[in-house]
Write a structure and sequence with these properties.
The protein is about 15% helix and about 40% strand. The longest helix is centred in the first third of the chain and has 15 residues. The protein is mainly β. It folds into two domains: about 30 residues; about 70 residues, Immunoglobulin-like. The chain is elongated. The protein starts with 11 loop residues before the first helix and ends in a 6-residue tail after the last strand. The chain has a three-stranded antiparallel beta sheet with strand order 1-6-3, with no helix packed on it. The chain is built from one helix and six strands; from the N terminus they run H-E-E-E-E-E-E.
Length: about 110
């Protein structure tokens, strides 16, 4: 949630524009929550690799943005903890992903 200091703006047109910007930015789903971006490279297949996410909570969601290489990566959501993700791959690959928790309004 982004809160702009609109009340400090004296010009009514500028204040309205900032209100519209604030509403648009806050309506974007990806911004509703706390996210951290990672890129991880695997040189071979791995099973149940423990990846330290360094978030101050146990994440609920992962958004995979790209996979390059011949391997396929999977995340075991049942094995996510407050410190680690569980990742398995079928071969060498580089994965890029967001980790966090999507939040509905009022969950902050």
């Amino acid at each position: 949630m982004i809160k702009l200091l609109r009340k400090e703006i004296e010009d009514n047109y500028l204040q309205e524009n900032f209100l519209r910007i604030e509403k648009e930015v806050n309506s974007q789903d990806i911004l509703r929550g706390q996210w951290k971006f990672f890129q991880v490279e695997f040189t071979k297949s791995v099973a149940n690799f423990k990846f330290q996410h360094r978030l101050p909570y146990t994440p609920k969601d992962i958004i995979l943005t790209s996979t390059t290489g011949t391997g396929v990566a999977t995340f075991d959501f049942n094995l996510i903890t407050n410190t680690h993700l569980d990742i398995s791959t079928t071969g060498p690959c580089t994965i890029r992903f967001f980790v966090g928790s999507y939040l509905e309004a009022g969950e902050f």
